[in-house]
TrEMBL record:
The keyword Transmembrane helix applies. The keyword Transmembrane applies. This is Membrane protein, putative. The chain crosses the membrane at residues 7-29, 41-67, 79-98, 153-174, 181-201, 221-245. Keywords: Membrane, Transmembrane, Transmembrane helix. It comes from Treponema denticola (strain ATCC 35405 / DSM 14222 / CIP 103919 / JCM 8153 / KCTC 15104). Coiled coil: none annotated.
Length: 311
């Protein structure tokens, strides 16, 4: 089976497991805290279930990111499957559960809660410090999203959509280093950091400080969504640049083709043998004079006639 087809299954399973883990834990803790109240477990279970849905959705996204770290082939199809799965839960299932939130709250608040009178049991079920700290930063986040849904479905989509746009941008941290274990540990740390920052961003002091900085007036509702979108945009730009640089490094460099010089063996031209011509023998002066006399003055004049001599 192709790995990208498993992405919706990974998302749904982690969503259900996260919701059940949080809801059952809170239900057990509430039932131990108010032991004499009938039906407290079920009402606490439902009360936590509908509030914890955004956190469960974020955990499911991170679980898919970890799955994609192990199976990185066809990353585009995996992202498409993740977006479709998330959109189904974000736009349909979570609002559908939110629609029953008022009834769940009424059932939960109608229970008369009386704390147990057992110091040993109170000490045993007392929440650790880190759980109390996590609850203090998670509670405002989930309540604000639910309040936006109560205001209108459109405000829920705008407000929650800007937050999840920022959550989706955190994918870059799964590839920011070559050590997958480091990338894996960055995801929960970033989630805690975002929730902790949100606990300050939601305060009136922060909103007033932003309004003082802005040169123009803007409705308070839009301040936080715009900030979330700007933060997500910066991370997306960084992600694009990082991927382009890595792709450029992986591309084979164009090698310059050097013209190969063909070494032709040099053939030595055969040297033309120099033919030494015999030097002409110069006659001696005495011999030359003798020759001239032999040529023009014959020794014997008896052969010439008188006419020849006259001529």
């Amino acid at each position: 089976m192709k790995n990208w087809l498993l992405v919706p299954l990974v998302f749904i399973l982690n969503f259900v497991l996260a919701v059940l883990a949080f809801s059952i834990s809170v239900g057990i803790w509430q039932s131990l805290m108010y032991g004499d109240v009938s039906g407290i477990f079920f009402s606490s279970f439902l009360h936590c279930l509908y509030l914890i849905l955004p956190i469960a959705c974020i955990i499911s996204i991170f679980a898919v990111y970890v799955f994609m770290m192990r199976h990185s082939e066809k990353r585009g199809l995996s992202f498409l499957a993740l977006i479709i799965s998330f959109a189904l839960f974000f736009a349909l299932i979570i609002p559908l559960v939110y629609s029953q939130g008022e009834k769940i709250n009424q059932a939960f608040n109608s229970k008369e809660k009386v704390s147990i009178d057992d110091k040993h049991l109170e000490t045993f079920i007392e929440r650790p410090v880190f759980v109390q700290a996590a609850g203090s930063i998670v509670r405002p986040f989930v309540h604000d999203i639910y309040e936006q849904y109560k205001a209108s479905y459109t405000s829920y989509l705008i407000f929650s959509g800007s937050i999840f746009l920022l959550i989706f941008s955190l994918w870059v941290f799964t590839t920011i280093t070559e050590w997958k274990i480091v990338n894996f540990t960055l995801l929960p740390l970033l989630l805690i950091l975002i929730l902790y920052a949100y606990s300050y961003i939601r305060t009136d002091d922060f909103i007033l400080s932003i309004e003082d900085v802005l040169p123009f007036a803007i409705p308070k509702f839009w301040i936080r969504p715009v900030l979330f979108c700007l933060a997500a945009l910066l991370i997306y730009i960084y992600t694009m640049m990082l991927l382009l640089v890595r792709r450029a490094k992986k591309m084979p460099k164009k090698q310059k083709i050097k013209k190969q010089k063909i070494n032709v063996p040099k053939v030595k031209k055969p040297k033309v043998p120099k033919i030494k011509m015999p030097k002409p023998v110069k006659p001696k002066k005495g011999e030359k004079i003798k020759e001239e006399f032999e040529t023009f003055i014959p020794d014997n004049l008896g052969d010439f006639g008188e006419a020849d001599i006259d001529a």
